[in-house]
Amino acid sequence: MENPDVLYFDGSCPLCQREMAHLAKMKSDQLVLQDIHALETGGDVPPKEALLKSLHLRRGNNWVVGIDANIAAWQYTRIGILWRWLRWPLIKPIASWCYTIWAAKRYEKRYDTADNR
Q: What is residue 109's DSSP assignment?
C-alpha cells in the first residue's frame, strides 16, 4: 500500500478543528490529518509559519497549497465531487482569491496580533 497523503492543518483554530473533525469522519485511509502544532521540527516539511498561513497537502514529494489543498482533501470522501466546482475556470480565480484573503486575515488575527502583545 502507498503512503497516504497528509493534510497539515492548524489544530488551534476553532474553524479548522470543526472542518477537520467533519473530514475525519468521512475520509478514506489514504489521507492523514496532521495538526501542525504536533509536528516535530525539521525534515522536508515547510516551516511552521508557512503551514499556518495556508493549508498544505502533501502527495508524496509534491505539495498542494491553499484552496487546492482543501479541494484535494475532500476528494478522499464520498462527497468530494461537490467541491470540484471550485476548480471551474471562471470560479477558481475567485475562490482562490477569497481563500487567500481569508487565510491571511485568519493568520493575522490568530498569530500576528498575539506576537504584538
A: I
